[in-house]
Design brief:
Length: 200
C-alpha cells in the first residue's frame, strides 16, 4: 500500500508521492489511489478547486469528495485544522463527502453541505454532510451546518465513530443522523420538521 499526499502547497504532480509533489485538492489523490492506499491530507479548507464536484452512479447531487474504493483518507492534524466545505452560495447543491463500502474518512470537519431536493428520499438525496454506504467509516470528524431535504441533515448511513454531529437540518427526518451506527459520538443542536431532531 502507498501513501499519497494532499497539500495546498504541493506541485500537483501525480502520483502525489511526496509533500513536494502533493495534490492540491483531495479528489485527484483519491482518483489516483488504489485499494488499501492512504491519502494523507495537510491542514486547509478543501473543495474550492473541485468546482463541479464528483457524482456517484445513481446520485443527483455532486460530492466535494467521493471515496468509492477501499482506501483511507485522513488528515494530519484533525478536524480543527482540516475541513471539506460543501455548498458555496444559495444556488448550488453540493454534499461534502460520499464514503463507500470499505472506505474510511478520518479527521475532518464536514460543513455547509446541501443536497438537491429531487429523487428518492431513501436514495442518495439524503445526508448533507456525508452519505455513507453501510460499511463506510467516518471517524474523528465534526459534521456541522449541513442540510438534506429528506433524511439525515448531517449523515446518512455508515459507521460513525468518535465524532461530533451538530447544527444540521434534516427537513423530513433525522436532523443529525439516519440509519447510522454511532459509537462514542456527540449529537447536539440538530433540527428537523419531521421526526428525530438528533437521530432517526
Amino acid at each position: 500500500p502507498r501513501t499519497l499526499y494532499v497539500s495546498p502547497y504541493g506541485s500537483g504532480t501525480p502520483p502525489y508521492a511526496t509533500w513536494a509533489t502533493a495534490a492540491r485538492d483531495i479528489q485527484p489523490a483519491i482518483d489516483e489511489a488504489e485499494a488499501r492506499d492512504t491519502v494523507l491530507v495537510d491542514d486547509g479548507s478543501y473543495g474550492i478547486l473541485n468546482y463541479g464536484g464528483t457524482l456517484v452512479a445513481g446520485d443527483t447531487t455532486p460530492n466535494r469528495i467521493a471515496i468509492a474504493k477501499p482506501i483511507t483518507v485522513k488528515s494530519v492534524n484533525g478536524p480543527e485544522k482540516t475541513e471539506v466545505v460543501g455548498t458555496y452560495g444559495p444556488y448550488l447543491q453540493m454534499r461534502c463527502a460520499y464514503v463507500g463500502n470499505g472506505a474510511q474518512l478520518s479527521g475532518f470537519t464536514l460543513r455547509d453541505g446541501q443536497v438537491a431536493p429531487v429523487g428518492s428520499p431513501w436514495g442518495y438525496e439524503s445526508g448533507g454532510g456525508a452519505w455513507c454506504e453501510p460499511d463506510g467509516l467516518l471517524s474523528n470528524c465534526v459534521v456541522r451546518g449541513n442540510m438534506a431535504p429528506w433524511y439525515g441533515g448531517g449523515v446518512f448511513g455508515g459507521v460513525i465513530v468518535d465524532s461530533v454531529i451538530s447544527n444540521n437540518v434534516g427537513v423530513s427526518y433525522g436532523g443529525g443522523a439516519v440509519q447510522s451506527v454511532l459509537r462514542n459520538c456527540m449529537i447536539a443542536y440538530n433540527q428537523t420538521y419531521g421526526y428525530g431532531s438528533g437521530t432517526f
